[in-house]
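lol ok so funny story. i was supposed to be doing the assay writeup but got distracted and ended up predicting the structure for this chain instead. priorities right. anyway since i did it might as well share w the group, maybe its usefull for someone
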Amino acid sequence: MTKNMGGADRIIRLAIAAVLIVLYATHVVTGTGGIVALVVAGIFILTSLVSFCPVYTLLGFKTCKTTG
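and the output, tada:
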């Protein structure tokens, strides 16, 4: 699994995940929308931690600097 996410992309995803979690915790987003928000937040956190996004691989997209 090769990294395909840059630092800025990771920070943006973590920020979006934090916003989604706060919206759910403050009951701004509830019900099915809240569950979807938490799932999306979890995916964003996971992909940020491992610096890999499967969708980027499918689209042939990279936001990280290439080394070599």
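The chain has one domain: 7-56. The helical segments are 7-25, 31-50, 54-59.
back to the writeup now i swear
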